Amino acid sequence: MKSIYVDQLPFEATEEDVRPLFEPFGIVHSVIIGSDRDLGELKCFALIELEETSDVDPVAAVDGSIYRGLTLRVREAPDGSRPQQPSPAEHPGGSA
Fold first, then answer.
1. In sequence order, which residues have a C-beta less than 8 Å from that of residue 5 and are 6 or more positions away?
2. What value does the mean pLDDT take over residues 61-82?
3. Full-model pTM
């Protein structure tokens, strides 16, 4: 199983939007969509759990592709990880 992190998705992206990007490379077990809306930033990311069935590397195939006018940034995430959000203490204007 491969964990894949996708950044620079459109803010309105849904699981149904992201899933087809990776289905050609294997069985998509999960798509978790997140955003930095709470931090005042309009950007969206996803974490995909993929069981590869293709010889083509999904990270290399999708990284740098244009999706709804945005250039996707894709990388392999460490197994079992989820994207980390900065805590309020780490974000400018946050309180400790």
1. 45, 46, 47, 48, 74, 75, 76, 77, 83
2. 86
3. 0.73
